[in-house]
Automatic annotation (TrEMBL):
It comes from Candidatus Propionivibrio dominans. Belongs to the universal ribosomal protein uL24 family. One of two assembly initiator proteins, it binds directly to the 5'-end of the 23S rRNA, where it nucleates assembly of the 50S subunit. It comes from the Bacteria. GO terms for cellular component: ribonucleoprotein complex; ribosome. This is Large ribosomal subunit protein uL24. GO terms for biological process: translation. Keywords: Ribonucleoprotein, Ribosomal protein, RNA-binding, rRNA-binding. NCBIfam families: rplX_bact. Residues 38-103 form the Large ribosomal subunit protein uL24 C-terminal domain. SUPFAM superfamilies: Translation proteins SH3-like domain (SSF50104). The keyword Secreted does not apply.
Length: 105
């Protein structure tokens, strides 16, 4: 069970985009995530008329290491660590370490 998943609200805690907030668009692999509007890079794209792609310079969101991001806790308005807990019915859920609330509930 991963601590950061697709669709989670995160805040960047290290790097050039420190302090920015965004939503996880995709998990690239076990250690990298792509966050909406964070770690943008200029990419030069060749035109491809067959696929209908216009050429030019486009902004592209690049992957970030999961160590550089933390889940955003809406209750405390800060970055928070994630833990795991088993509920009474046996399901395993993610919780915020600061207040024990279930993530996404």
């Amino acid at each position: 069970m991963d601590k950061i998943r697709k669709g989670d609200g995160i805040i960047v805690i290290a790097g050039k985009d420190k302090g920015k907030r965004g939503t996880v668009l995709v998990r690239v692999d076990a250690e990298h995530v792509v966050v909406e509007g964070v770690n943008r890079a200029k990419k030069h794209v060749k035109p491809n008329p067959v696929k209908g792609v216009a050429g030019g310079v486009v902004d592209k969101d690049m992957p970030l290491h999961v160590y550089n991001v933390a889940l955003y806790n809406p209750m405390t308005q800060k970055a928070d660590r994630v833990g795991f807990k088993h509920l009474e019915d046996g399901t395993k859920v993610r919780i915020f370490k600061s207040n024990g609330e279930v993530v996404g509930a």
